[in-house]
Amino acid sequence: MGTSYSSCYHSTTLSTHSLLLSHPKASAFHPSRFPNPSFKFHFTNQIHQTHLRIMSQKPSQVLGGKVEVGETQEGVSKGPMIDFHGIDEGLVEKMVYDALVWSSLHGLLVGDKSVQRSGKVPGVGMVHAPFALLPMPFPECHWKQAYELAPIFNELVDRVSLDAKFLQDSLSRTKKVDAFTCRLLDIHSKMLEINKKEDIRLGLHRSDYMLDEETKLLLQIEMNTISASFPGLGCLVSDLHRGLLNHYGESLGLDSKRVPNNPAATKFVEALAKAWIEYNNPRAVILLVVQPEERNMYDQHWLSALLKEGHNVSTLRRTLAEIDAEGKLQPDGTLVVGGQEVAIVYFRVGYAPINYPSESEWRARLLMEQSSAIKCPSISYHLVGTKKIQQELAKPNVLERFLDDKEDIAKLRKCFAGLWSLDDSDIVKKAIESPGLFVMKPQREGGVKWFKLCSAVVVMTSVINESLLHFREQHLRQ
Q1: Which residues form the signal peptide (predicted)?
Q2: Global pTM?
Q3: Which domains does the chain carry?
Q4: Whole-number pLDDT of residue 45
Q5: In this predicted model, what pLDDT tens digit does every residue of 164-202 receive, in sequence order?
Q6: Which of 226, 199, 205 is nearest to 152 (CA)?
Q7: Cβ 60 vs Cβ 210: under 8 Å
Q8: Of 129, 302, 323, 474, which cross-links 327 as Cys (Cβ 3.0–4.6 Å)?
Q9: Does the pLDDT of residue 279 top 70, yes or no?
Q10: What DSSP line would sit under 413-449, residue for residue?
Q11: Which of 348, 312, 139 is nearest to 229 (CA)?
């Protein structure tokens, strides 16, 4: 196997969002000329993947470097670390300048948090998205391994989503201490009561991996089944890296031809378009459920533009509160929002308690789940992505409950990192004695803290009474 240079979008959450992996160190820039660029490298590999199942009739954040606390999903970026990696400072300045120009010309953009209405009005307060300046060599064999795992994980998510008893039983203790998970389970229970079936199930997932330095194994950090962001901007970073290496690759000793193509955006769009066709109403729209202040709107608009230009599919953007105000459920289950029939509900929000500040948002979520629109994800798919379910699936003999192929099961088990709940007293004791072997992460997604246990033993002991909210994961050496 050869080596691929992997182009990865680095979000504001210390996490890469492209087909492969970026360098684990910071890139370099001259602080006097570029005081606020957001270039980062982080050792995480994330694979965007799509899954469409029609039944009526297919690269997480673990802390690196010296950062001790990070934020999941779309949080605030830390200040850039300056490390030139032995590259001439003048060359770095040229690359930074060219990269900023390229980002502006090609739409590698987000809204500037410091500019009012930058998350509401397109074109206001645009700034380049944080990204790695250069790609990092990454073993091609591990890239191919992650690529081959994607359809197996998709199948697993789908099958687990159909086992309502497994989901309810596995999360029964979690819901007692986590009000958010409890509300999700209540919606799930209501769907069971009315015998709601999802004949067409669409998943746009992102699986996060890291390489463990000690074992040299590719290990999964988590599977994201809701609001897997940055397929649009991530593809642009691959193009940016390829362009930079076309100009500077000879000086850097890097070959642009070794940067693989990243088709995440087109694959997401193809999956959405195929599901839209299955809904079978050419006048229906795809509803993007978004935040009231959406600084990452351009990543989403890339998908909307590709849907319209390539498939003549229209999209509608609404917040949960707006859906509650405008949404109507027809007697036959049809969802109508703003006077338009909805074929697909595509969630780019809804993964965290902060997304539901009032009962209005919860009413909207229930309304959409009750409808005949295709949900991406459905409430069942959403629950499969919780850390507790990930932990349950890693237990002996559980995968066999959902998958038949022994080779597929072996492939999944090979990439599982250790994951334990805080309700295991023996593991708690071991973590306190050897905190460097673990990280602590929450049950929920989005906007919450996770900790490296060497600096969080006090935190861990303080939340022991809320043990089911947190899970300890093997600390991978990088």
Answers
A1: none
A2: 0.81
A3: 3-388 (no CATH), 389-474 (3.30.1490.50)
A4: 53
A5: 999 999 999 999 989 999 999 999 999 999 999 999 999
A6: 205
A7: yes
A8: 323
A9: yes
A10: HHTBPPEEETT-HHHHHHHHHSGGGEEEEESS-SS-E
A11: 348
